[in-house]
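User: Hi! Is it possible to get a structure for several chains at once, not just one? Here's what I have:
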Amino acid sequence: MALSIIILAAGQGTRMCSALPKVLHEIAGKPLLEHVVETAAHLPGAQINVVYGHGGKLVPERLAHLAVNWVEQADQLGTGHAVMQAMPAVASADKVLVLYGDVPLIRAETLDRLLKVDGVALLTVSLEDATGYGRIERDQQGHICRIIEHKDASEQQKQIQEINTGIMACSAQQMSMWLERLDNNNSQGEYYLTDLIEMAVADGVEVISVAAQSEAEVLGINDRVQLAALERVYQQEQAQALMRAGVTVMDPSRLDIRGVVTTGQDVVLDINVILEGKVVLGEGIQVGANTSIRNCKIGDGVIIKQHCVLEDAEIGNDATIGPFARIRPEARLSEGVHIGNFVEIKKSIVGKGSKINHLSYIGDSEIGCDVNIGAGTITCNYDGAYKHKTIIGDNAFIGSDTQLVAPVTVGKGATIGAGSTITSDTPDNELSLSRSKQISLKGWRRPVKKPTENK
Ligand code: UD1
Ligand code: CA
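Assistant: Yes, the chains can be modeled jointly so their relative placement is included. Here is the combined structure:
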């Protein structure tokens, strides 16, 4: 039986108090719905349908990169009504799995277990506080008889702790047959998908429950408090995965991963590190506190000190960076490079062993090996209209407070005197400098204040 997945994502999410549809809110920088779609895509051969509605086309537009079939539910008349909208896209021989777009941490293994059940399968969990959820009513033999929504439940039924997660599976044939019989005679005037359970039982079809592995994987998000709580759960899981892979995480509650991190052994991540996008870490790397790294490849033995920001860059083995450095897109730092405090590097190649230790801006440059760039050096790469290139040869020494006005080339082994403004190419192995002559004024006196009269 082929698998058709229907993800319900049309609800408004009133309690988010947001202009954004609920399923576009994010966990770890990724929309809730995208988490669910990615998990669903792990199930082999699944065709994924997403029912959207509230917020109009915004959801399918923002998530146009997802390989799903978008189905509109113009009016949100209930979960049963939502599934009805998707059924025309489902082949009658398929099995149907219903997921919720606002239950982001559901695991593929749990869904696998649910799909192994013959007949109607329902994912349930027992909660200390079941307020708001549909309750699972069982007969004396323990067989499921029906689901009662919280708003329709008696005081006695409200005592039941086993709840409906909303996630269920059955054959498309059964689903269509029961949906046709659905009505909206309930306290909310909605077509409840949950009423299918009672119909199944009436037709003599057994409903089998599968227990969720953890509470977190079936928790839905209704407001921003729950959003923050699930964000923490997700981050803890990721931190644990890194620790199991040989990373020392100084405080797992102060690490945020918003993307995919691959890592070698013996990496140490200090507190408040943020890793975003695709981050590849080699072995034995140290990342200091309050540093964020986005889409970078970082070699073995690199030390990144506190308060650095790295984005779309490649760092060679044994380089040291920071504290307070900014490594911007297309920066390629070779092995053993030293970047110090208040240094910004953009779209530049820095050769092996070169040092830029203090207060510098290097943009659109090619810097050779073993170059020493003095404090306060600026590559003037922008003329107001175009960007130009600065090339610095191997072994060059750039004196402090130098401006290199691009396009310009500094020769190999060249020395630039401190305080120079270099506007034309300088020869190899020679000293070049541009500096106004120093003078001293004989007999000059510094002004002094007049003594005040009442003193
Ligand atoms: C639903 C279940 C309840 C279960 C709970 C678990 C029903 C009737 N009740 O209740 O038994 O315990 O989920 O969280 O199914 N949606 C649509 N279109 C609609 C209505 C809802 O797409 O017309 C989507 C929502 O966006 C959401 C999901 O379906 O993702 C659940 O809807 P919601 O209104 O949150 O249902 P609950 O009242 O929480
Ligand atoms: Ca809900």
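The CA atoms of residues 119 and 205 lie 7 Å apart. The chain has a mean pLDDT of 96.

User: Great, thank you!
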